Amino acid sequence: MARKAPKKDAVIVGLGWTGSILGMELASAGLDVLALERGEDRETVPNFQYPNEMDELKYAVRYELMQKPANSTLTIRRTLDEVALPYRKLGSFLPGIGVGGAGVHWNGRTWRPQPEELRLHSYVTEKFGQKTIPDGMFLQDYPVTYAELEPYFDRFERMAAISGKAGNINGKIIDGGDPFEGPRSRDYAMPPLPSTYDASLFAKAAKAMGCHPFPQPASIASQSYVNEYGMQLGPCSFCGFCERYGCYNYSKGSPQTCILDALKRKPNFAYKVKVEVLRVDLAADKKTATGVTYFDHTTGEEVFQPADIVLLCAFQLHNVHLMLLSGIGKPYDPATGEGVTGRSYAYQTEGGLTMFMPDHTFNPFVGTGATDVVITDYTTNRIDLGREGFIGGSSISAGTTNGQPIHSLPLPSDTPTWGKGWKKAIKQWYGHSMSIGSQGSCMAYRDCYLDLDPTYKDHFGRPLMRMTFNWQDNDLRMTQFMRKKIEAIAASMKPAVMQSSFKDKGAMYDVRPYQTTHTVGGAIMGADPKSSALNRYLQSHDVHNVFVMGAGAFPQNIQFNPTGLLGGLAYWSAHAIRTDYLRNPRDLS
Amino acid sequence: MKSFLRILGGVIVVILIAIALIIWVPAQRTSAKALDLPTSDITAARGAYVARAANCEDCHTGPGRKAYSGGLTVASPFGTIYSTNITPDKQYGIGDYSLDDFRAALYDGVRKNGTRLYPAMPYENYRLLSEADVESLYRYYMDEVKPVHDQPPQTHLAFPFNQRLGVRVWDWLALKNPRFKPPTDNPQINRGAYLVQALGHCAACHSPRNWLMASNGIRDEDAKYLTGGKVDGRAVPPLRGKDSVTTRWSQTQIAQYLATGRNAYTGAAGDMTSVVGNSLQHLSYDDIMAMSAYLKYLDAGTTEASAHSNDVPTKTQAMLTAANPSTPLGARLYLDNCDGCHFANGLGAPGVFPTLDGNPTVTAASATSLIETILYGAAMPSTQLRPERFRMPGFAWRLDDHDVATLATFLRQGWNNHASAVTAGQVAALRHKEAKPPLKSDERNAGRADQARAGR
Amino acid sequence: MTDKPFEGWRLSRRAFLEAAATAGVAMAAVPLHLNAADAPVALHKYQPEFLNVDEWAFVMAATARLIPSEGEGPGARETRVPVFIDRQLAGKYGAATDWYMQGPYDPSASPDRGYQTPLTPAQLYRQGIKAVNVWCEKRHGKTFADLDAPIQDETLTSLQNGRLVLVPELSWFFSVLLANTREGYFADPKYGGNHGMQAWVYIGFPGARASFKEWAMQYNKPYPLGPVSIAGKRA
To answer: Which among B324, B339, B344 has CB closest to C224?
Structure first.
């Protein structure tokens, strides 16, 4: 029998980026807020301190900062006729844990979607016709427009200390920025980070081919910075230990550098660590939540935490899992096409090409998580989708993030994997290679979804979540299109060796190599409660005092890293809660 | 011979009379000053603000203890002194103190029962408090502070310092006129002077002490006022004069430092972390501007050193940037330990990482603060305007005495710095016996963060 | 239940010669600033925490082929990779503490389904080494460690490409061995491998320095300064 704790106005599940944003917004509105985090507390010093953080084995290879599958994982299958097997050790994606969540160990790349991406169904059908949409693809408009979100994108970017160069300010195209982006109300708060050598070579080559290179917008400070909460960042030292690591010198945007010390000062904000939410508790009529029940790993007790509002702010996968376990929204069933919770899981489509250039010396260990130069000349709003035969697009970029030798030492594919030849090759090629990569959209499909596994359980005896996902023809055609574009640019740079790695038709999802942690969908936002779990304010259609943050809300994935969009949505949702929901709690649709 | 004995006898009689007087003449109490505020303004709320400005809580709340219940250890040259319980508890606190008793503690360092407080309590400076502040404080302590029925550890110094009568003699020699004298016609500067001299009691650390350990500079007319002091063996920087930061920083930079513990040049560390964290960050904007105006006034006419722009890279910067294998050890240690935050130009980043080039802590005559910072790190306080608790980790575990000395010497002589070398022996003397001393922090605000984490 | 290492250990002539050569090479490759107090236990005297006698011999021999001593740059021996592997297997990694190890299992699942064996890395080594030695004994009359280098290479190749057939539960053995070997070669020396940061010196990786703000815009210029370890040692 769970002990009942004193009621809170709002309980937040997970203290990462969105948990910190919602915590700050609701505490500032005077609510009594409690955040529950199942991982450890984390602060720059001592948890990411120099030089102890500079440990490739511990952080990049053994994944110290990530969620341990022993404690929380899921099962994965590619098709409906496979038996899902557990994701036993980390590979393809790396969910975060602990205070700060994945916001601690991300690479800082921060984007806005293109305006067309937020209304992709309308865009495609208007411009290219309904027939462009293949059978089995779920293509939906977001229930919110780029124009509506613009001030919230701006707010998130200013809070998260983005360095960059705007390409479109109120319709005026600015040289040196992204000319194809949606209009911004103002430039970024800080100038972009300098480009490394390889990125500069790519910029030159891309420009020569008529493309429009610009520096990657990054939540990495290029100079001293203060945000709206008085929180501060210092300039990045290009340390080469960015992605998968906490930042030792307060220069990467994270809840720690951007929000938490300010939030902890509020007497009406409190948080607990090492407490794991088991479920959201619903009232008998299932139309509202009464609170959450959590297990306290420190005391070993189960506690019921009553609250007026429940915010699910955990990582996308865990939010959806909690919704499935708690009965929030009807679970999606691909056989019938009915149900909303778990529907439209999507990933990100990536490819890359590595070039070996013995006449150039790169210092690959000099880098930030986001030192790329990018071109958006082959993004969704630039492509004649009807002619090319796919829906989607990619950004293309080059820039070193690190030269850590265990996991970042590219070698020509004909190099022996061990022995004398391998040892010779590592010296020959370390510091003489660079890559050009594409990162792009991944659509949602009928047979790509999340539900509860029938067999495997976690250590609480709860069923694991099951992911059914595979690469689909549409996105594979798109990535092959990018391959051709990248190979052309690479060839113009005249490398000694060039090798491509792009998935082709028939590719099966391989869970072993790291690809990206941009797992999205499963709790998608939409106007229609029959095909979406959340409304435009990230409010559950079914349980009106439950709001679900994060990239689970994306009906299909955008071309870019998700944090900028989910950050803007978090502020947008918080605004609706503060100005509308609180004075009259109800379904806001 | 006879006249000698007679003189000796006379001297002995005088001494005996003096001792008798010291023991039996009742303690003299400084009388109340004229009240310069209407009585209706003397409120407990006002007293709460005065208590913040005077930073009573920092000394009168020991670690892990309830507010104002004492128990903080103060390491004096004479032994360990424990702060007292000043809650209105009748048995263990000051619950039975009248206003006159309370005033006597602040002005004269005398308890209700007549025994002397050790001057670890800075009554030398609090003597300058106005009557309005004394009475407001009294209201605050009697009406708002929660009584704590708990006796902190008692102070027992070794002979002869346990003879509190000796303190009476000391007081007679050391205590100056209690009247605060506004130095100018400008109300802002006068308010700043009062905040610095009386409430802030800055001179308690930032002025030197004489052979009696009495303060050698309570107010501006004292020649040595705010010219630097020594606490726990560590040099405390001056707040006036040509080497002080107050001549180099603008009024705005001083104000930023006071309010947030950081400015374009540096961050608060050591004892200033808790002074800013527990006291200064809570002062009003007007009071912060008054204090910074007053500090600039003290050196009026002294030209301000230009803020560092470092347009011409120094040789040090060039050497560090080149990162040659032949880099000498001090610079090499810098690259391996410090460069990640303080960078090759030694300028750090404004408001975030202190500059090392031109930083008085780096180039002070005594290298103690610098060595301790390298060994044990530093922590800025969390403040309302700038909540981030920047921390520098310590390197005691990574660098041996020779490394620290070489690195410290490099810092003191690199870029535009010109200061003496540091020896391994100096470093060895500063290594703490316990594994790692606690990082100096603003404990009250650390407590707030802990409370937040406890999920009240 | 692990076998106790070094009980009844017999020093074979071959192992002795190799150990002596290794000790000599290791000492020669160590940078001059390391004093006697830093010099670690010679590999042939090292007391493993996890591996038993035969397993230690296998790991010594196999890693020496995966990253050989010949040619420019240190090999697995000089960098003490076997020590790294032994310590990893004795700890959290060996016990798969962080992994989801609940059944049911499908070890025959295709490799792109990920790690699906019920065996921890420690068990993989224990059973995998045994299986490989059985195969070597059957084919060549000796255990892996006693084979000549070219035959060892052949064996490892067969293990890698599946010609050396193991039960499905052991299908990950070679890839784990190879990955651990590279990890031991390149990880920070605090983990027992990358002795004296030799691997970092060899390829030009600066280790834990992690501070290059002024180098971001230095194009096409090799960074010259050697590495520093987390412990603060320089090379």
So the answer is: B324
